Structure formats: C-alpha cells, structure tokens
## 1
Amino acid sequence: MNTSENLFDLPLAMRMRIDRELNAGEEVEWVSRPNANRFIAREMFPLLFFYASFVNFMGLHVV
Amino acid sequence: MLFSFANIPMLKNVADMNFAEMDLEDTIFAVIFGVTGLVFSCVYLRILWIPVQIYMSATRSLYVLTGDRAIEFDGSFLRKVTSCELENVTRLRCSKDADGTGDIGFVASWFDGRIHRVKLGFGAIPHVESVEDLARQLVDTRQDERKKSTVQSG
C-alpha cells in the first residue's frame, strides 16, 4: 500500500524545503506530514498537567 | 477611575517609591529585583511559547524517506532539518496506535575516526505499519549494497 502523499499536493514552501535538502540524483520514496490533531493532542496532554501543577504551585506560594 | 499602579496591591510599594531620593542601597536592591524579574519573565515566556512550538511542529513538519536517507524537517521556529543515511541505521523502532497512526524512530551510528550517533523520529504518521515495511526494505537494500561493495573492494 502506497501511503505517501503526492509531492505536488504539498504547499510550495514545503516542496522547496525538500528540493533544497536533496542531493543530486536522490529521489523521494515516501513523504508525509504528521497527523496534526494527534500530534497536538499527544504533545499538549502532558503539558496541560505541567501548566496545572505550575499554576497550583504559584498560586500556593504567591497567595 | 484612572489606572494607577498603586491600585495593584503587589505594586503599591513600587508606586510609593521616591526615585529622586534613592541611595546606593536602594539602587542595588532595584537592580537585583529587576534582573531577577527579567530572568523569571524570560522563563515564563519560554513556558508560554511551548504550545506555539507544538502547533508549528504539528502543522509544518515534514517527513521524507529517499533511497539513501531518512529526513525530518521540523516545522517549529528554528526549522531544523535532521537526516541520517539508511546504510548507517542500527535501530528502527515503530509504535502503533489503535487507528494505525504511529511513530517510527531511527537511530544511526557510524565511525569515521570518531563515533557519530544520530536519532530522528517520524511522529504521528498515518498507516505507520506500511511505512515501517518500506523503511525496513530500504534499509536492508542499502545495507546489502554496502556489504557487496565492501566485499568487492576488500
């Protein structure tokens, strides 16, 4: 199953980033962007705990 | 009511200060408190910046596999690019969620007079199993080619 995104469906800025990085003769076999919602959920979840504990800590000490 | 710092309880002492009559001791205290405030402000701003960084990474990152390399284009503010040669990959790990989305991690190490070690990861990519198959296939192909060329030249 080919799960690669079509290179020409990507925004121009992204294609230019890829073009700049590739060496001569090097061909793209697979390209993909992350699932943004999953990425954000996964990264933000622990951060929210950190924020909550931080606010709790500051609240206790300032007040 | 006009805005005044004196209305903010924590800043009342600052508002009451008479800067014209400050002596050396007051100045030293002012500098110490000011610098401390600036340092902590920087820390708070850095902490508040993290969600922005996460959003940028999520929406602007890009993962690429070529015949020779795995490349990770980070989308956050510094726009870092990390890549490793597939022939140097020593470990390839994959973790999968229930809906088929998952992560692939590459560890590459090689020796050219000193030891190099590069880690990079493709995070939250859809259909991770088929991507893992492709990556393993490319890694095997590249490493077989290297073995053959080493045997021929040796």
## 2
Amino acid sequence: MNGFAINGLALRALSRAPLRATLMMLGIVVGIGALTVLNVMGEATRADTMKRFRNMLGTFDTVMVRPGAGKTRGMVSLTNVPPTLKFEDAEAIAQSPEIRQVALLQNAFGVDVKYRDRSDTPAIFGVSANWEQLRGDDVAEGRFISDEDIRAKSRVAVLGAGVVSLLFPGESAVGKTIRIGGVPFQVIGTLPSRGAGPTGASLDDLIAIPVTTASTRLFNRDYLTMIVAQLRNPERADQAVESVRSLLRTRHHIATAALDDFTLTNPAAMLKNVNRMNSILAGLLQGVAILATGIGGLVILGLMLAGVTQRRGAIGVARAVGATRSDILVQFVLEAGWASLAGGLTGIVIGAAIAWLAVRAQNLPMALPLASLSENLAFAILMGFLGGLYPAWRAARVDPVTALRA
Amino acid sequence: MISLKNIGKIYQRNDGASVVALRDVSFEVQRGEFVTLRGPSGSGKSSLLNIIGCLDRPTSGTFELEGIPLAGLADRELSQIRSRRIGFVFQAFHLLPRSTALENVELPMIYSGRPVDRTKALEALARVGLRDRADHYSAELSGGQQQRVALARALSNDPALILADEPTGNLDSVAGHEVMSLLVSLNEEGRTIVLVTHDDAVAAYANREIRLCDGRVIEDRSARAESISGEAAQ
C-alpha cells in the first residue's frame, strides 16, 4: 500500500469539495470550541484562586492549626475562636520531627488605630518574628518584628500597605508613633502590597505587632487564633497532620472517642481540587460540549455515508484499477480523520480566542491548559474516526461490478 | 494469455431467484489478439468481461490469465493482478470529476503500491494526444477527450491486456473513431484487447469476434480468415 499517495487522495477528496469538508468539520468545531472555552476559563479561574490563596498564605506546604472543631468560618479572630490553642501548644508542635518551624498568630479585626488626626480600623496581627518570612515576603521599608521584639514585648508595629496609605499619605511611616487601641506603638517597617485574598478582601489592611505584645499589652488574652507549622518535607503532609493531631489531642487531654477541639488543614491538599469542576453548571456545560462533539461525529458519519453512495462509481473504478478493499477502507477513514483533526484544531483556536477575550474582560490570569487541549484534540479525532469507520467499511464492500454497471 | 474452460456464472437475485448469465463458456485468447465480444443485451458478454477482468469470479469452470489459475486468489492478489496486468475502459468513462486529467491517469499508480511516476503519466496522456490537457478537470473535457483520458489511465501501469466495455457507446462517430484508432495502435504494439460492443462498425476494427447468446458462445470467427470456426477448430 502506498500510504502517502492514498492519504493524498483522502486530502484531495476534502479539498476539492470545500463545502462538504466544512460541513464535516462544523459539529466538531462547535463541540471542541465549547470544550476549549470551558477548559481555558476553568484553568484561568483556578489559577486566579490559587494566586489569591498564595497571596494570603505564601506557602501551601504547611499545617494550619485553628482552635475549634471546624466550626469557624472565614478568617479567624479573637472574637470567634474558643480559647483552647495555647502558646505552649505551638512550642510543642515546633518540636515535632515533621515540622521545620511554627509561626504564631493572635489577631483581631476592626481595632481603632490613630496617627495624629487620622484614624483607621485595620486588623491587628500579633505574630511571631518568622511570620512574614513564612509568607514568603519581606518588608517594603524599615524592618520586620525581630525575636528580640518578641522577647522584650516591644511596642513596635509593621504597617500593611493599606494602612500606610490611609495614615501616612505622602509621608514616611517608619519612626512615627501610632496608637493602637490607645496604646502607643512605634512604626518600624511597612509591608508591600499583597493584593486580594480568596474572598476578594484586601490583604493590606493590617498591622503586624509582636505576638507577645499583643497578648500582654493589647488584647490581654493567652490563647492563639492560629498556628502555622511549616513542613520539613512537603511529601509527608499527611504524616505531619497526623503527628500534630496526636500531639495536640494528648496535650488537650481529649478522650479516645471524643472529637478534636482544633482543626488541621494542609492547604496543598485542600487546593489540589479547587475549581477543577466548581459547579453543577460547569459540569452541565461540559456535558453539552461533549454531546456537541459527539453529534459532530454523527455529522461526519452521515456525510461520509452519503459520500459513499455518491462515489460508488469512483470506488468501482478504484477497485478496477487495482485498489484493494483495505486501500478503500484506509482512504475513507483518513478522509474522516483529517476532517475531524482540522475541525478539532479550528475549534481549539476559536475556543481559545473566545476564552482569551473573556479572561481578559474578567482580569483573570491567562492560562493555556495544554493537557486538556490535547485531550480535546484526541477526542475530536476519535469522534471522526468512529464516524468514518462504518462508512469506510461500507465503501470497502462496494461491489465493483454493480458500481460500474451504472 | 486468456484461457477459459467451461465457465459458468449464476447470479443470485435479491428476490432469491437465480439467473444464469454464462453456461459452459470455453475459449482461449492469444497474446496480441483483438477480440470483440458481441451479443444482445443479457447475453452475458459483460459478465464474461468482468470475469476476465478479475472483478468477478465464475461460479464454475477454470480461468487462467497468463498461465495463472485465478480460482482461490484473495482480494489483495486479484487487486494486484488488475493493477499491474489489466487496463479497463468503460462506456461511461468513470473519470473522477473533481480531479484533473493527470490525477485520473495517476490513480492506478497510487493503488499499485509503487511510487507515482508523473513522467510516465504525462507520457500516457501524450500517447492519447492530451498532453496539453493534463491540468484540466475531467468535467471540462469533451466526451471523446474524457474517453481518451480513460484510455491513458488504462495505460498508466503498462498492462498487457486492455478490456473495454462499449468504449464508444457514449461517443459520436468521430470521437468513437479516434478511440478505436488508439485501441488499434495499442493492439499493434502487442497488447491484447478484449472489447464488448454491439456496434458493427466497432467490431470491424477487431480481428476476432466471439458471439454470445443466452450465456453461450454461439460463434467464434476470425475476421481475417473470413471463416466461421467453432470451438473445436481452436
């Protein structure tokens, strides 16, 4: 078999009948186009969500420990958590072989802050010295809280970008003294802007102060709102979560059958499936798109079958001049295959273009999920192949004697 | 070249009835002969041509082409024989309408499994006087030109045997004469030609005439000898 030349015949049959070829591609173009829009949009949304979580957390390879049995919704604060997570718990977790280091948080929202005649009500984050480093960030100006500040319970503050712009518009904040809940703090640094978090709220409306200072001089509370424990080995996240769990259960004297009085989260595991299929609607749309591609395969089937009837004479001649049944079979399957490949590629290009416009309109990061796109292409080719197989089989079985009699 | 012994062909019609197309047909054709098969419609001449062309198989009897018995050969082998040894010409031309003359002539080369030889295809077109029409679509050609392209197509794999089924049936007398002259010249260079016709003028080009009626050979006459000879005389 002269495969190249037979392939040439298949391509010629398509190119010499452009209207028919376009119709053959149409269903595949629509179906694959819709699938591509969904894939690209889905990936863009997912990437955006990941970016927001990264803005907030810095790293996903941690175990986040919150007090309470998973009842707290949204951001923790002193007003919505039970007073069960202690400083000593954090020290104990830091000793675990699975854990590299722990960062401490004791925070409250909407605290009155004043500088001269200007005021703001940001979140106050009492944090350990490694907080900012664990979030993968550094100060924009000045310095962050040091271990010495923690030990000395210094009244020092590092301002988020939002607070800086409200309290110190057009001037330097470092070295100034502000009042947090009436207590004077010296500004030692400012943070770069972090943008929005997962809920869309700003991550810049906060002031970080030493967690010891927050606990003893501001809030007068001895419990934490969160402990962030950094994993030594990200591969061992599950083991780390279990070791922290058993450690805290022992420390909190929880009976074997009783529930935890804390919540452990590994952000990496939580985010693994985020937005992959985030709604029933998206699933429904995807089903419709797959159905459309399937109908595209049926369109190919119908047009190819009509083509076999129409081209009986040509098939008879081909057989008479030496084509074997498998030559004819291969030629017709290739014809359907090329139509579906072209349809699939066109669908991907059109779909990606539409998705790109939508992504740009919504200000999402541009994403190109190559794996999904090549799956779509393979799906298109499969549909064309399936649609072409039966007509090709019929073509191969055309009896040259009867075909040539006409 | 061709040896038919006691060939019978029975068709099974769709309604289940069987139709006898050929009964006990036996004759031989030597290399270089120009034979016409004649007879009224339904006499079995086309069935016979299809069997000689390896497009159809006889129900009974033995058929040898160039000494090779064809019974029991697979589709692939029969296709290869058609591709390399036989050229077909049909009454309705059967050119691919959306292809150029040259592409039509190259078609048998594609299915022969050998590389497509464009020079040879152009030579075949030159042979039928249509070298300058190579890039014309077949629908743009006149009937006579189309049949000459079909003849070039039959020649493209350089076959020793050319089978023609009413090649002039759809042509006017001038175009018909052109086609017949080409067939005669092909015969003169040694190719065997078997032609089905019911036209006396066409039959006159041949040097042997086999008449069929009701699936039987009723006459086998060599035109040059002007004598009637039965099968026994062969």
